[in-house]
Amino acid sequence: xxxxxxxxxxxxxxxxxxxxxxxxxxxxxxxxxxxxxxxxxxxxxxxxxxxxxxxxxxxxxxxxxxxxxxxxxxxxxxxxxxxxxxxxxxxxxxxxxxxxxxxxxxxxxxxxxxxxxxxxxxxxxxxxxxxxxxxxxxxxxxxxxxxxxxxxxxxxxxxxxxxxxxxxxxxxxxxxxxxxxxxxxxxxxxxxxxxxxxxxxxxxxxxxxxxxxxxxxxxxxxxxxxxxxxxxxxxxxxxxxxxxxxx
Length: 247
What we know:
By secondary structure, the protein is mostly helical. The protein has 10 helices and 3 strands, in the order ααααααααβββαα.
């Protein structure tokens, strides 16, 4: 890696942080220092940036600890490297696995933090009508922390796009409630409600008032959710089950 290659990678990183994620230049400058040190270490160890493994990522963080970096600084390195790997288009991001493997949170399901939930939603393919429906279901779990039983109860009229909120009826264990929608999901929900959902009803000859419905033989969402989690596990190796999405 020569100086020119390094500058190109740093420019990709800047475009991703500032233009795609919308972070401030001050935040970028803090991450840039970390990535600059990271790239120097890769160069000194003859490791291509796009081919870094999980173990090599651990090696770098161990190297930083030996240089005296405290836990807070190590966490900044992990976050910066996670963003950097996304910026250069790595198909599998080892820094995400570092976060989970070394999580200080002692929970049985290894809850994912907000930045990883955002990455799942942003990077999940939604090309077909069914995939666009699945993205909306995914958003309900990622941003609103809805569970399977909540999703199955939702009716079309419960989605109040004008007020940017969703009505969720009471269950045996929860009271009825209104939840504000995330700005990240409103456009996709609008497209689903007014375009995708009617086309799915027509294509699969279904007439229902449910907000989300299966396009297979199953009347519930079990089949659709089973296929969705299988697809997510293939694309995001740190996803184990839907319980990780609770915030």
